[in-house]
Amino acid sequence: MELKYKSTRNPDVTVTASEAILKGLADDGGLFVPVEIPKLSVSLDELKDMTYQDTAYAVMKEFLTDFTEEELRDCIRKAYDGKFDTEEIAPLVKVNGMYHLELFHGATIAFKDMALSILPHLLTVSAKKNRVKNEIVILTATSGDTGKAAMAGFADVEGTRIIVFYPRDGVSRIQKLQMATQKGNNVDVVAIHGNFDNAQSGVKAMFEDKALAAELEKKGYQFSSANSINIGRLVPQVVYYVYAYANLLKNGEIQPGERINVAVPTGNFGNILAAYYAKQMGLPIQRLICASNENKVLFDFFGTGVYDRNREFILTSSPSMDILISSNLERLIYLAADCDAEKTSELMEDLKSEGTYRITEEMREKMADFRGGYATEEQTCRQIGQVYRKTGYVMDPHTAVASYVCEDYRKKSGDMAKCVVASTASPYKFVKSVMTAIDEKYGAEDEFVLLPKLQEISGTAMPEAIREILDANILHTLECDADRMEETVRSILGI
Predict the structure, then answer these.
(1) What is the pTM assigned to this prediction?
(2) Measuring CA to CA, how many Å separate 152 from each of 147, 182, 451?
(3) What pLDDT was estimated at residue 172?
(4) What is the pLDDT of residues 251-306, one digit of tens each?
(5) Phi (first) and psi of residue 422, to 5 degrees
(6) In what helix (H) or strand (E) does residue 235 lie, and over which residues does it extend?
(7) Residue 222, CA distances (Å) to 211, 214, 494, 495 in order
(8) How far apart are the first and last CA of the chain?
(9) How far apart are CA 410 and CA 415, in angstroms?
């Protein structure tokens, strides 16, 4: 049976998987969700002997039912190839009593590679299926990692262009350089004078602008998204949780059917939502531990049932989590509201107009699998140093947030279930924060001087993604104010 997708804000909108991938965002501003979350059709025992690529097919075929086996396997083969520096694609490493799922072995050394390596292939197949003649303009906002991973995925892909907006002062130096040096004739990068939420709101406003869409159509363009709001981003993320569980089984770390916890450093809520989808597919996950930094809007939400973005925006050492509007939470809200699109739309309108909304107690009960926690900057820094001194393992600040929150959850709850920590970025991407956390003496040194020192203390080779930007030319210098994003897009596209 073909699995259809609906908008979280309109029960009358139903599309195929390929149509949902092409559109990215529904016309009403809602997000596409499957009419039901499918079950795994292979056993966990069968999964434990599969490669990452075969696991990806076993999971994704349940969601992307209008793709043929040949089409989907071809997308997977092109995505998960030699651009990853480990054969496993997503290795599991036991660290300090937890299992770190290393999601940073792709071309841009962050977890976004896991989905953004395949999205361009899914999108081009979707375009052919739906006889799209327009050039597809990928419009995306990034808090640091999505942008580079999307640009790397879409660079020079025929029939596409990509425009990325990022907060000029809200990313690490290495993140900024990765974006500013990206090659590709179809790539544009813009630094905005504002934060990530400004960038994300500006992008969503352009997606919802029907007059702009009509102008684009006349010029032979149409928008699509590479953010995790695109179902083509979310579905590939489900895969690595299934793969992690299968590998725990394979390695004898857990017994068949044993329930595990998952701790995820969380900003836009896509990564942890993928773990929730994996649980709904039949994966034995007990608790989903949502780890926040000092921008703890999600921690407060799970504790109170009130989502409130009306607060100070804090720049932290984990910039990919410096987010006050967690877009993918809308998909969970929709499920908790018994798929009531009207209720979901009402809450999202409250968020847009008032900056806050409150869910019902019944909805909160349906989110009982989630636990919120957060780490301060001091706690994050201390976690990096302590784990390094105890084990020799070096982790980036985002991973450290999840590691700390998982430890704290265990202490407070007594729940000692095996825990998979989503390790979302290479420490090389945040070398200054990491090295200073290990020893304060490094705080005065230049970021690039610290790279070989990190290589020495971690015992891991400097990733190619870092080596290639050290001498690369700056190709993108465009900046704009947050309220001039549409004007900037018009200028880039010549409309």
Answers:
(1) 0.92
(2) 9, 7, 22
(3) 85
(4) 999 999 999 999 999 999 999 999 999 999 999 999 999 999 999 999 999 999 99
(5) -75, 110
(6) helix 231-250
(7) 12, 9, 14, 12
(8) 42
(9) 5
d(CA 230, CA 328): 10
**What DSSP state is assigned to residue 99?**
E
As given in the structure block, the two tokens for residue 342 are 């009207």
- Supply φ then ψ for residue 246, to 5 degrees: -60, -35
User: Which strands, in side-by-side order, build the sheet including 5-7?
Assistant: 10-15, 5-7, 32-34
Catalytic residue chosen out of the listed positions 61, 112, 176, 204? 112
Residue whose C-alpha is closest to residue 99's, from 110, 88, 91, 111: 91
* Separation between Cα atoms, residue 199 and residue 489, nearest integer Å: 13
The residue among 171, 454, 109 whose CA lies nearest residue 316 is 171
Which helix or strand (DSSP H or E) is residue 308 part of?
strand 306-308
Query: Given this model, what pLDDT does residue 342 score?
Result: 97
Residues in the chain: 495
Residue 343 known to be catalytic: no
- In the chain, the amino acid numbered 251 is N
User: 92-107+232-461: what CATH class?
Assistant: alpha beta
Query: If we measure between CA atoms, which residue out of 159, 81, 72 comes closest to residue 122?
Result: 72
Give the chain's largest Cα–Cα span: 61
